[in-house]
Amino acid sequence: MRRRLLVIVAAVGMLGAVGLGSATAAFAKEAGLGGEAQIVAVLSGTAACINGGGKHPKAVNKASFTASGTEPVQNGMADYTLTASVTFSPSCSPPMTVQFTSATLTDTTNGLSVTLIP
User: Fold this and answer.
1) Closest by alpha carbon to 69, among 60, 50, 82?
2) CA distance 41 to 28
3) What is the three-class DSSP state of 90?
4) Cα gap 101→72, rounded to integer Å
5) Which of 19, 45, 54, 76 has the most CB atoms at less than 10 Å from its CB?
6) Where are the extended beta strands (E) located within 4-96?
7) For residues 15 and 81, is the Cβ–Cβ distance under 8 A?
């Protein structure tokens, strides 16, 4: 049985928070993939719209996000970036901010998963 290792080289972060939504990205390097040609990676989680007092103003101001990609493997390794967008309805506009409350990166090809934000 081959040994596989999932390493995150940069954490999930907010790329922008204006108007309707925000984006988050995961930069990853996965090694020990042997002769596989590609993997399927999925970034998923939730985000909340937070008011200036640090509170959720409405229960509806929570949204899920998911992004996936088929990533090539070279020399047993895969280096990739997944970017996901989240949209709120109603919009999460200033002075409110977007806070990512959970995020998980999963290699569905090999059944590997890492929690980026618990």
Assistant:
1) 82
2) 10
3) coil
4) 29
5) 45
6) 5-18, 21-31, 38-50, 62-72, 78-87
7) no
Distances (CA, A) of 73 to 11, 29, 49, 70: 21, 10, 37, 10
| Least trusted range by pLDDT, from 50-54, 70-74, 75-79, 102-106 | 50-54
Per-residue pLDDT tens digits for 24-38: 778 888 888 888 999
The separation between CA 50 and the C-alpha centre of its own chain, rounded to angstroms, equals 19
| CB-CB contact of 47 with 102 (8 Å) | no
pLDDT digits (tens, 9 = 90+) for 74-98: 999 999 988 888 888 878 888 888 8
